[in-house]
Amino acid sequence: MAVDELSVGGLGARVKRVEDDRLIRGKGNFTDDFKLPGMLHMEILRSPHAHARIVSVDTTKAWAIPGVHLVLTGELMAQRNLAWMPTLSYDTQAVMAMDKVRFQGQEVAAVVADDPYIAKDACEAIEVVYESLPAIVNPMQAKAPDAPLIRDDKDGQADNVCYTWEVGDKSMTDRVFERAENVVKLDCYYPRSHPSPIECCGCIADFNPATAKLTIYMTTQAPHIIRTAVALVAELPEHMIRIIAPDIGGGFGNKVPVYPGYVIATLASILVGRPVKWIEDKTGNLISTGFARDMYFHGELAIDRRGKIEGLRIHVDTDNGAFFSDAQPTKFKVGLMHSAFACYDIPYGHLTSQGHYTNKAPGGVAYRCSFRVTEAMFFQERLIAAAASDLGIDPAEFRRVNFVREFPWRTTYGMLLDSGDYDKCLTLALEKLGYEELRKEQAAARKEGRYIGIGISTMTEPLGAGNSREFDIIGIKMFDSAELRIHPSGKAVLKIGSKTQGQGHETTFAQIVAHELGIPSTDILVQHGDTDNTPFGMGTYASRSTPTAGAATSMASRKVRAKARKLAAHLLEVSEDDLEWELGRFYVRDAPQRGVTIQDCALAAYTNMPDGLEPGLENNAYYDPPNMTWPFAAYLAAVEIDPETGVWEVLRFVAVDDCGVRINPMIVEGQIMGGLAEAFAMSNMQFITFDSSGNCIGANYMDYLIPTAWETPKWELHEVVTPCPHHPIGAKGVGECATVGGPAAFVNAVMDAVSHLGVRNIDMPVFSGRVWEAITQQHDVSGFPPLAGH
Ligand code: CDP
């Protein structure tokens, strides 16, 4: 008898997360939990200035403090050729400032001591003399003709531009706009935010002078890339480097880049010959590690009288901070920004983008998003909402008129969509919200002076980087891997190239094996995060794990099943061709009662294999996806604004997600709820801003707000399933969909509530103060500089 898919914890089973047994009992092992014999502690001295020349660094007093083992400066780093490092975007980044500091919080020196308190005191004893320079805190200042040059370290760099990029058909797009019946324009700003995981970044670098092996315990979402990067930067042989990423307390993109602290701790361990631990504090994390967003948009839509979009123009200015260190596929200077408007059928489009150096922390990380997709979808949905409102078309209808309906579909900026049913998702969402009724309620409320608004956000996004033809990071092609070993007893170990940071891979990837082989998911141990112990993979970010490592898990399982078939034929004394497979069992086609289980085959692989068949039952797969996966979401928010204060509350929020086949519906729902909470926070409470001197405002949790259960609205979740045609189990990524599509739903709802007052745009965060200003003064509230009070 076949085993039942749900009872073995296969696809669709709501298996509880196996990770949680240890995590909720406080038995997880995070980087800071490791205490190695002889371990020392490192603290970093950071720049108080955003832009200043370094006149001198005097470390005499720091060296004199008992318990100090090493003081590192830019000069020492330079002696080892480590003062600068390459970034993932082929720029250079200072590991430790030597000539000048370029953002507040930049690394200036570090101390290694017996404990972190001594190291901190010694940092404070280092005397640095700075000569202050004017700070540039936004692209508009960076572009000014008299702007100071931030990257005077780079040969041939005469301005503050770090890249320019374009995609699309300019001449045809211009022609469409010339004869357009309607042109709708919108400018808006997606403010700088921060992924802000609860666990900050850190590492323990452990160089063993006896074996010359370097082991680094590290908070990284991508251990294998880090190993390669360390090998290249430190010129150490790769097989003598081991990166261990233990439990991670949230990554959200913040733990993808290589930060100077990792490099400094590694050099420190090599120099002192002892393990060196460096763990950031919260302020360090918020001011110096990868920020997200910080993009200024201008967009235009050419629309005919029926509401059909004929052309699209977008220009984006990005604020990249002092170093261009965005983690993104090499080909795409502004990440996957060109996925904007993918779900709409738009014949012609042209996108231009320019990046700017400023005196702010570098990063441009994809905060729970596929390389700038969040920004792309936010602007898309704001522009769509503005267009519908300007033209007086119902926003749901406007979307329907313009949705892509045939697949495969090449988007205006060249991406390939392979599946989806956008209308179905939106229709379900409208139905669940009771859209028509709510519109009537809104009209009646308006007569009473109450401001109710309905916001719609619909989007498809590319998840699962690569394929290897188009996607690479520092030249390493984007694919992923899995290695499956079945023990004689039928229990299994699965090793994957991705790295869970809370998504539940130890649960869901075992479920994929259960689906392919019928082995109960509870009999499968999933290992990840240790480069000595897992196959090479590109790590976990951009919701790529299920589309890539998940697919590799299927493929490795299928290879194992192919070998198990030979063993089954041997055990049943029939030809392989006479066998059929049902979940967990091979049987003889003409005698279905004669069969063997996958566990029988596993035992035979070690105890009773046929002549000529090598023993063992294991295999691996490196999976290079043919395309990204394209999940779709329709998010609907209903809000009510208090006209006296501008405070708005969410009345209802309906989410319909189509992420293809769901491996574990409970985990998928958790991913969506968490993503929506982050989207809600971005829409109205989070931004990291800077004063005119470049001082970071928002470097603590009093200013940078994290939503609690108290503020978070209730989510109403629904699903549609259109399987991904090229993924072995039809799954699409889902981890970031809600963070990507969510913010526009909230902002569009607030705009819908105040549109009758002539208000067209309030930039995020849509604070109550901004809403109140918009209502009372009946104008837009822009996040573009100069901001009031700055
Ligand atoms: O790369 P990351 O794990 O962040 O994102 P993902 O691949 O979208 O997966 C997030 C979590 O949801 C993982 O545990 C997946 O296996 C699970 N998932 C699922 O159960 N079904 C899907 N169709 C997609 C993801």
Question: Would you mind describing this structure in some detail?
Answer:
The protein has 790 residues and is α+β, with helices and mostly antiparallel strands. The protein folds into 3 domains: 20-27 and 480-623, Aldehyde oxidase/xanthine dehydrogenase, molybdopterin binding domain (Aldehyde Oxidoreductase, domain 4); 34-133 and 200-248 and 255-288, Aldehyde Oxidoreductase, domain 3 (Alpha-Beta Complex); 373-463 and 628-777, Aldehyde oxidase/xanthine dehydrogenase, molybdopterin binding domain (Aldehyde Oxidoreductase, domain 4), CATH 3.30.365.10. 28% of the residues lie in helices and 25% in strands. It is built from 19 helices and 34 strands. It has a 7-stranded mixed beta sheet with strand order 3-7-1-14-11-12-13, with helices on both faces. It has a 5-stranded mixed beta sheet with strand order 9-17-16-15-10, with helices on both faces. A 4-stranded mixed beta sheet has the order 20-30-31-34, with helices on both faces. Helix 10 runs parallel beside helix 18 (737-754). The longest helix is centred in the last third of the chain and has 27 residues, at 546-572. It is globular and about 85 Å long. The mean pLDDT is 96. Residues 503-505, 508, 540, 543-546, 550, 659-664, 667-668, 671, 731-735 line the site of cytidine-5'-diphosphate.
